[in-house]
Amino acid sequence: MSLPLSLVPAPPRFTKVPVDQIGVSGGVVSFVCQATGDPKPRVSWNKKGKKVNSQRIETIEFDEGAGAVLRIQPLRAPRDENIYECVAENSEGEVNVNAKLSIIREDLLPGGFPNIDMGPQLKVVERTRTATMLCAASGNPDPEITWFKDFLPIDPNASNGRIKQLRSGALQIENSEETDQGKYECVASNVEGVRYSSPANLYVRVRRVPPRFSIPPTSHEMMPGGSVNITCVAVGSPMPYVKWMLNSEDLTPEDEMPVGRNVLELNSVRESANYTCVAMSSLGIIEAVAQITVKSLPKPPGIPMVTETTATSVTITWDSGNPDPVSYYIIQYRAKSPDSKFETMDGITTTRYSIGGLYPNTEYEIRVSAFNTIGQGPPSEPVETRTGEQAPASPPRNIQARIISQNTMMVRWDEPEEPNGQIKGYRVYYTMDPSQPMSLWQIHNVQDSIITTIQSLVASETYTIRVLAFTSVGDGPFSDPIHVKVLQGVPGQPTKFQVGAVSDTSMELTWEPAFQKEGIISFELRYKEGGFGSQVTKTFGPTASYVVEGLRANTEYYFSLAAISNKGIGAFTNEISQKTLQAKPSAPPQDVKCSSSSSTSLLVSWRPPPVESQNGALAGYLVRYQAVGASATQPTDVSPSPIIQQCKWATVLLTMCRSPFVSGGQCGAQ
Q: Which of 19, 391, 421, 626 is the S-S candidate for 633 at Cβ 3.0 to 4.6 Å?
């Protein structure tokens, strides 16, 4: 039966042997020796067959005595120059190895002897941070840099990548630990010798911070049966454990207690309770409470009471109807009509509010609801109220007048679209001179009717009539004027006189007769171009529309119309105006000029067509050009003062047009 390999006794064997070294007088050298065997060997150093024993020569053991560093500092020549022996022994045997030390005075050093150009400096680093100990050396050949900590060699390969020696020679220690604290030396060596830097201490500072809450738990209000997650986060150094408690009951199992962060999940919550987050470390214990309040939606407030109304506003007050505080109130209101929808005003924090922007003389329905942290509760019972009156906002509609006797006319109209209250009556203003101020017109008051007669008119004269409505608050605006001629049997002023289809040379006009069976035999149309053009008169048979042709493009025209019967011509309508559409220019650009700007380009310039021929806003120009003798022209869209590029120098025919006219010219070399 054989023993396992690991239990077989073995004599010592060196795993790291010292090398000969050349030091500088007053400097430092270290011989490193390490062995393995079973049982584990013990390593020692001899000089001339005797144990080394001096204040300047120190043996530093490592690897439980299986390794030892012989450090000599400061070096003294010639007494330290010698052969040093490393001995490794166990119960199975003994082995030894020698290393030679040579020492050179500083003033006799060879030119390539290593020199420390920059050594490590005192450094303080927080635990887990990265520390970098700097080192730079020179020599010939370039020296190799190694590091010692507390007189022992550093092997970066034994740190799982946490300790690295950079290409610059610096030593980088990542995720620093308390065991990294110590005295560091940078060692530069080449064939000429070895030199040590001055030692520098690295201190690893361990932060000790008692726990504190970085995200304390927050309180919540919720509906019955609701769910919520409560997050609690604590920090410190060392990081604290975090758990949840309900009264004295631990909600987090001790063997599952997380570090730093704990989320409490609550489902189907029916009762209010206080949940405590506890954070604990070796430096202390802290607590924070989250209140979970189970609430319901607020109750409806009391029925609103109207305390004040105007034509455009209503002021209401109400009782909260809720024993618990509410966040704010929401008012909903609408006009009482089949198609109206509620409008909403929220964020109201008082129990009294004035609703503005309402329509006069309109009945409204108003209700109030409360809002708390859970949501909006049901609305109160509605209150109904009517806003106050105002003067009418619009004039009477469809004003018509008709002569019914030698000096009497009948006037009728429809109610205003926006009466803003109960119409108390109407005022009919009439005059033979519409240029006078309204205060000098004659007034005929009418109550409870939309038709009236006005007597004592002057025969054969034309009257202008305007009507307004009034409420108990005041008068509304005037209607547009209408005209009537006091001549019995003469047709009334045509109504709904307006422009229909429009083109650049024509307009369609439409209208309706003032009354049926007026015996109209023709119409007379008067129109003029602009405010000061000469008047043109057209007469045509009975119809409800007419197309005026032969008009100028982009020009405003003014029109008025009167009906004619066998008894004579009636009153003309008020003037209406309309501009014809734009059209193509009817004349070419003026003063076309051309000059050379280079051997391959021409500069072409011009003035726009005459204003009366532009027929609208000019959008641009089209320039056509060709070399003389060529078969085709080349077009280009340009802006004013164009330069035509890539044209070989020659006599060039330029064609410029804004259809339908064309202007051309020639340009030669100058």
A: 626
Per-residue pLDDT tens for 581-627?
998 898 899 999 888 878 888 888 899 999 888 888 888 888 888 87
Residue 214, sorted as left (phi over 0), alpha (psi -120 to 50) or beta, turns out to be alpha
- Give residue 668's pLDDT: 33
Of 184, 224, 207, give the one whose Cα is nearest residue 127: 207
Q: CA 416, CA 492: separation in Å to the nearest integer? A: 22
Contacting residues for 107 by C-beta, under 8 A, at least 6 apart: none
What's the CATH fold of domain 305-386?
A: Immunoglobulin-like (2.60.40)
Q: Angle CA(373)–CA(379)–CA(383) in degrees, nearest 5?
A: 140
SS3 of 608-634: CCCHHHHCCCCCCEEEEEEECCCCCCE
Pair type for strands 67-72 and 576-579: unpaired
**φ, ψ (nearest 5 deg) of residue 306:** -85, 120
Backbone φ and ψ of 497, nearest 5°: -75, 120
- 5-107 is a CATH 3.20.80.10 domain: no
What pLDDT score was predicted for residue 633? 61
Residue 232, pLDDT score: 95
Residue 459's contacts (CB-CB under 8 Å, 6 or more residues apart) are 406, 407, 486, 487
Q: How far apart are alpha carbons 421 and 311 in whole angstroms?
A: 9
State how far the Cα of 155 lies from the Cα of 32, in Å rounded to an integer. Answer: 12
Q: Which of 35, 32, 34, 29 is nearest to 18 (CA)?
A: 32
Alpha helices in 384-454 (DSSP H): none
Quote the strand ranges of 150-238, DSSP E.
152-153, 163-165, 171-173, 182-190, 193-196, 200-205, 209-215, 220-222, 226-237
| Separation between Cα atoms, residue 493 and residue 512, nearest integer Å | 9
CATH number of 495-579: 2.60.40.10
Predicted confidence at residue 646, as pLDDT, reads 36
Annotation: CATH topology of 590-667? Immunoglobulin-like (2.60.40)
3-state DSSP call for residue 547?
strand
CB count, 10 Å around CB of 116? 22
Count of helix runs (H) and strand runs (E) in the chain: 1, 57
What is the Cα–Cα distance from 179 to 202, expressed in whole angstroms?
A: 10
In 3D space, the residue among 591, 637, 604 whose CA is nearest the CA of residue 618 turns out to be 637
CA–CA distance, 264 with 537 (Å, rounded to integer):
92
Residues of the chain with pLDDT under 50: 1-3, 5, 640-670
Whether the Cβ atoms of residue 134 and residue 118 lie closer than 8 Å to each other: yes
Give yes or no for a contact between 259 and 214, defined as CB atoms under 8 angstroms apart: no
Q: Where in the chain is the domain with CATH 2.60.40.10?
A: 5-107, 110-205, 209-294, 305-386, 397-485, 495-579, 590-667
Look up residue 7 and give its amino acid.
Answer: L
pLDDT of residue 657: 37
Helix (H, G, I), strand (E, B) or coil at 202: strand
CATH code linked to domain 397-485: 2.60.40.10
Domain 209-294 CATH (choose: 3.10.20.340, 2.60.40.10, 3.30.70.120, 1.25.40.10): 2.60.40.10
List b or e across 83-106, with b for residues whose CB sees 16 or more CB atoms inside 10 angstroms: ebbbbbbbeeeebebebebbbbee
Q: Is 494 in contact with 473 (CB distance < 8 Å)?
A: no
Longest dimension (CA), the chain: 161
